[in-house]
Amino acid sequence: MGKNVTIVGAGLVGSLLSIYLAKKGYKISVYERRADMRKIAMSAGRSINLALSDRGWRGLQGVGIADDIKKIAIPMYGRFIHNKDGSHAYQPYGKDNQAIYSVSRAEINMKLMDLAEQQENVKIHFEKRCTSINKKDKIASFEDNNSQQNENQNYDLLFGSDGAFSASRLNMQLSNDRFEYNQHYIDCGYKELIIPPGKNGEFLLEKNALHIWPRGSFMMIALPNPDGNFTCTLFMPFKGEKSFEKLTTEKEVKDFFDAEFASAVPLMPTLIHDFFTNPTSSLVTVKCFPWTFDNSIALIGDAAHAIVPFYGQGMNCGFEDCVVLNELIEKNNENWVEILKEYEALRKPDGDAIADLAIGNFIEMRDKTADPKFLLQKKIEAKFSEKYPDKWIPLYSMVTYSPHIRYSKALSDGNKQQKIMDEIMALPEIEKNWESETIENKILEMIS
Ligand SMILES: Cc1cc2nc3c(=O)[nH]c(=O)nc-3n(C[C@H](O)[C@H](O)[C@H](O)COP(=O)(O)OP(=O)(O)OC[C@H]3O[C@@H](n4cnc5c(N)ncnc54)[C@H](O)[C@@H]3O)c2cc1C
What we know:
Blueprint: E1 4-8, H1 12-23, E2 27-32, E3 49-52, H2 54-61, H3 66-70, E4 74-76, E5 78-82, E6 88-92, E7 100-104, H4 105-117, E8 122-126, E9 128-134, E10 139-144, E11 150-154, E12 157-160, H5 167-175, E13 180-195, E14 210-214, E15 219-224, E16 230-237, H6 250-260, H7 271-277, E17 281-289, E18 292-293, E19 297-299, H8 302-305, H9 314-331, H10 336-368, H11 372-387, H12 395-401, H13 407-425, H14 430-433, H15 437-447
Parallel strand pairs: 1-2, 1-12, 2-8, 5-14, 12-19
Antiparallel strand pairs: 3-7, 4-7, 5-6, 9-10, 10-11, 13-16, 13-17, 14-15, 15-16, 18-19
Helix pairs in contact: 1-4, 1-9, 2-9, 9-10, 10-13, 13-15
Residues 8-14, 31-34, 48, 50-51, 105, 129-130, 161-163, 167, 190, 233, 301-303, 309, 312-316, 318 line the site of flavin-adenine dinucleotide.
């Protein structure tokens, strides 16, 4: 097979993938629908921060660029919970200073593009929108945003890394019989808001934490940025008693925030402006199959598996796709028939698993992080896991800090653990006895 690779989409995954393949000697043409974001101002309300964790770091380390990204990342060592009554609590994410890292999506994307372009065999073409893929003749067509002219590109291999609403995927869906496709919107949307820095540029909340205001059916989170501000995201149902549809006037927004997020309101001087200026966006899960076609096309990243953001894993999962693909290239000595077959067989169950875990964590973050029974369960698990680390790795740690455990294994082990904990938490007087040997032995008995 020849070495001409076309990548559709210079987002996070497409940019990283181009570096991996360039290092293997392929000639890469990346086509990106948008203008070069390094040359234009970001639009308001699109400043999403992402949590980068060990799977993502592994992807960056694989091509030697983790140190470059660390310079624009802020470690967050735990959740900082802001209760409605003004009290707060801190829950460390793991042990030994384990952290997840806050990065601006635009910053990391721009850095990845810079690093991709440093490879002499990568060229990114901006403002070129993929319009069709001719599998038979291996030609992809792109329309130039300005001239509206179409240009064709021959490829030996094509990767669709064009995100949740992928045109490459749609092309495959339309041209392949029995293509499985499922998309699901949750009833909740999100809106970005901001907590700016203090007068002297200082952080107004604890810098090294992910802040959560859990309120049952809705929640707000805030992640730190290097310039001292926090990007806040309000996740809330579109409809219902407490929902976006009920917040249509300045007074309604003000009253709602004063009642629900009183501790944050004094830190949000532009709240009303931001609320009405920034878009309300929806959240989708996409599952599809197959991910590869005619031994020459593969979907990767969100194009293959868009997930809701509540486990902070969408990008991490996409970076892991690149790691797995790279390992398979080495293992199969560039035999792309085998590589693509194994790629989809390995990654599809993991994509499905993290999609399900992400939905589960939505419920955990908004409903349970303030629930004393849930917090006790986490304490029991942490204590047991500390004593028997080879018998119990908490689910969050498996997903976030254990890049060698597959998502599908994390999901099935997590389900087993939950069954055990359901029994433990139902025991009488568990609040008093949770540190006892009886409880420890009971868990040991149930594990084996
Ligand atoms: C609110 C929110 C919070 C999130 N938080 C986290 C988090 O904390 N941690 C985490 O790991 N993930 C998080 N994610 C998920 C993460 O943003 C995505 O998983 C990640 O961006 C996927 O990367 P990608 O390259 O596959 O797709 P994208 O980043 O969407 O890139 C796709 C690219 O393809 C381009 N494109 C689209 N169509 C075409 C076309 N027809 N032709 C050419 N180019 C095209 C787009 O312009 C874009 O540049 C979050 C997502 C959201 C919405």
